[in-house]
């Protein structure tokens, strides 16, 4: 079917530590379980209700698998982007079973750690225990280069200049 999309976005908490195994080719495969919850107030009783869905996630992307192995632990909040895949397998009693999983493939999908490390232990890099770094240059002050809007020499090192907010595209 032309124009179809198979994309899943989940924001939830890890139900247990990741399970890491190696394929025969030596590539890492990581299995996760992610819980998403929905809360609402019951109309009849006024009581607060909650429903939790559990999702199986499989990571085939080597770089994402490394991040998952090093930094993910039970309870961490994650953003996962992948696609649904259903596979058929046979259990020990010979009965055919089906499993639907969210797959982060080699060239598609994403994994983002949303919260800081809640366990309190410090990882070697320390990058996920600290607040996310700012990707855009700070506006005004600091040593960040700025472009002068009028007068002066112009360019990146014009004193007192600021970036223009009106982008033409």
UniProtKB/TrEMBL annotation:
It holds the Pfam family SSB. Plays an important role in DNA replication, recombination and repair. Binds to ssDNA and to an array of partner proteins to recruit them to their sites of action during DNA metabolism. One of its GO terms (molecular function) is single-stranded DNA binding. A motif (Important for interaction with partner proteins) lies at residues 164-169. InterPro entries: NA-bd_OB-fold (IPR012340), Primosome_PriB/ssb (IPR000424), ssDNA-bd (IPR011344). GO terms for cellular component: nucleoid. One of its GO terms (biological process) is DNA repair. Residues 54-60 bind DNA. This is Single-stranded DNA-binding protein.
